[in-house]
Amino acid sequence: MPQEHQKGSRGWSAARKGVWSRLRFTSLRLRLVVVFGLVALTAAVSASGIAYWLNREAVLTRTQDAVLGDFEQEMQNRAGALPEHPTQEELQHTAGQMANSSQRFSVLLIAENPQGRTVYGSSGGLSGFSTQDVPASLRKAVNERQKITSTNKHPYRLYWQRTVHGGTPYLVAGTRTIGGGPTGYMLKSLEPEAKDLNSLAWSLGIATGLALIGSALLAQAAATTVLKPVQRLGIAARRLGEGKLDTRLRVSGTDELADLSRTFNKAAEALEKRVADMAARDEASRRFVADMSHELRTPLTAITAVTEVLEEELEFEGGGIDPMIEPAVRLVVSETQRLNNLVENLMEVTRFDAGTARLVLDDVDIADQITACIDARAWLDAVEWDAERGIHARIDPRRLDVILANLIGNALKHGGSPVRVSVRVDREDGGDGAVPVNDEAGEGGSDGGERKDGGERKDGGERKDGGTREGGAGEDLGTGTEDGGTLPGGSVVIEVRDQGPGIPEDVLPHVFDRFYKASASRPRSEGSGLGLSIALENAHAHGGEITAVNSPEGGAVFTLRLPRDVSALTERDDGSAENTDNAEDAEDAR
Q1: Cα gap 87→182, rounded to integer Å
Q2: Distance, first Cα to last Cα, the chain
Q3: Residues in domain HAMP (predicted)?
Q4: Which residue from 51, 146, 201, 363 has the fewest beta carbons nearer than 10 Å?
Q5: CB distance 364 to 395 below 8 Å
């Protein structure tokens, strides 16, 4: 797919997500628009309904009163002038005259002729207005004789009713002639009034729709006015959460949102000051530890030289040390070595805290690295290892040696021997197994020294007394694969298992904490409490991880997982290739 198309797709996706985020129901903007719309819709519908009902009643009442008044007047003037027993021709003629009034309604007259037969006269002829068009209830009410009272002086009254035929509304009315005479019915179409009312309804509906649209626009404008400061506050809060503590909001106005912005600025200012104070104290603390460690090395160098002489005197067969003070001399020697280790560990921790630790990568054979670590510390009789030669990785060999020394040394101190070290490869697809990169190991072990057939090494880290300095210090010059090919992906997994009682469950979460030591359930450690913490920091520097669990078969299992190629990590460090975490280099930099 072309890059431009990919960018276009990502832009469209981002825009769509942005629109959806603004329109989702949990959005305050949408809720404001919905609430404004519902309020406007309720108000508009209520007002339109009331206006329609009032206008409908006014129109119908006005038309009805005019028609009924005209009909009543026609009944008195024309129907009242007929004889008591008119003929059908007379009824027909009178009905036609009544229908030609100003209101133009249909008329039906009913009476008895001189022969006593009921005759009908309709303004529309025989096929016009008939009794079938008059509701039975209305005919009954018209023919019912009323009782004469002081308030009702006539036995018959005018009655009316609204009906609908074929979808057209009609007004039907009827009455009997006062003083005797024919019964008259009137039928008036209300279709013109219905059309006027329909036009009014449409007008009110359009007005309601416009009001709804106007309310939505007004709500959008109000939401924008209200939410813009809230959005700025959210952006500022995210920037503050990202560590940009100098973020501030521009405050204008005196409303609640302005007060909220001022509160945010005060909180951000206080947070920035607090973080600055904490950073200053942390920097002072790190500087103190670094300076203390550096200053301790000068007298320790002299003390170490003296203790080495005393140690040689202790091993001299001639008895150069008085037996009375021999225990004290041995205590001084051991505590001096412990103090040396503590100072080295403190300096290592200081480099990690200061962010000056760097990786010096090389292609190493993991089996050679493990063998060299165990051999250098004389752990051959206490450690068993299952590491196939040919498993290569591009890592920092010195730091791997530190990790292995701390994990194996911790297992020997706190667990039970023999300690078993195993290696496997986790491929990227999740499969396990050792995958050799090269059947023949490259020249030189992972510690950079040339390995002889007898397993001896000369690594540049040799002490004056011939011993090997713990931690594998010295120049690391592993050669990697012979064919110079690139390493496969996946991870190298190294497990260190001891035969001890395991780690208590309450201790497991803290085994990598600095200066943390287990309770009485494990033997008291003579170390500094920094070894496992330094091992974890070195693993993290490689983009790896160390986990600690208890094995179901007994004992503790520490699992180290490292990428087989961590070159990408060093490329992100501005291309720096200096080994700034080397102890001697750190001394010179001070």
Answers
A1: 11
A2: 53
A3: 224-276
A4: 146
A5: yes
Residue 580: C-alpha distances to residues 356, 392, 462 (Å): 6, 25, 21
Amino acid at 437: V
Task: Report which DSSP code applies to 509.
Answer: G
Instruction: At 334, list the tokens.
Output: 């051991």
Q: How far apart are CA 305 and CA 311, in angstroms?
A: 10
Q: How far apart are CA 397 and CA 400, in angstroms?
A: 5
Angle, vertex CA 138, rays to CA 135 and CA 139, nearest 5: 90
Q: Measure the CA–CA gap between 351 and 358, rounded to whole angstroms.
A: 9
Q: Is 565 in a helix, a strand, or coil?
A: strand
- The tokens describing 435, both together, are 């995958």
pLDDT values of the chain reduced to their tens digit, one per residue, 590 residues: 444 445 455 555 555 555 545 445 456 677 777 787 788 888 888 888 888 888 877 888 888 888 888 888 888 888 878 887 888 888 888 888 888 888 788 888 888 888 878 888 888 755 578 888 888 888 888 888 777 777 777 777 888 888 888 788 888 999 888 767 788 898 888 888 888 888 888 888 888 888 888 888 887 787 777 777 888 888 888 988 888 888 888 888 787 878 888 898 899 899 889 888 888 887 777 777 777 777 777 787 878 887 887 777 777 655 567 777 878 877 887 788 777 777 777 777 777 766 667 788 889 898 888 888 888 888 888 888 887 888 888 988 888 988 898 898 888 888 777 888 999 888 754 444 433 333 333 333 334 333 333 333 334 333 333 333 333 333 333 334 444 444 556 889 999 998 888 888 888 888 888 777 654 444 445 556 778 888 888 888 888 999 999 988 888 899 999 998 888 776 665 444 444 444 344 333 33
Cα-Cα-Cα-Cα torsion 346, 349, 354, 356, nearest 10 degrees, comes to: 110
437 contacts: CB under 8 Å, gap ≥ 6: 390, 391, 392, 481, 485, 487, 488
Check residue 320 and give left, alpha or beta (phi > 0: left; psi -120 to 50: alpha): alpha
Rounded Cα distance, 515 and 250, in Å: 46
From the list 177, 178, 174, the residue with the least C-alpha distance to 188 is 174
Residue 478 Cα to chain centre, angstroms? 47
- Which helix (H) or strand (E) is 563 found in, with range? strand 556-563
Cα→Cα distances 358→366, 535, 576, 581, Å: 20, 15, 8, 6
Q: Is the peptide bond before 418 cis (omega within 30 degrees of 0)?
A: yes
Round to whole Å and give the CA distance between 543 and 548.
Answer: 17
- Neighbour tally for 382: CB within 10 Å: 15
Q: How many CA atoms lie within 13 A of 394 on its CB side?
A: 15
Count of beta carbons in the 10 Å neighbourhood of residue 219: 21
Q: How many other CB atoms are there within 10 angstroms of residue 421's CB atom?
A: 25
Give the global pTM: 0.44
CB-based contact 566:489 (threshold 8 Å)? no
Cα 6 from chain centroid (whole Å): 25
Q: How many CB atoms lie within 10 A of CB 59?
A: 17
| Cβ(190)–Cβ(171) below 8 Å | yes
- Tokens 């986790």 correspond to what residue? 426
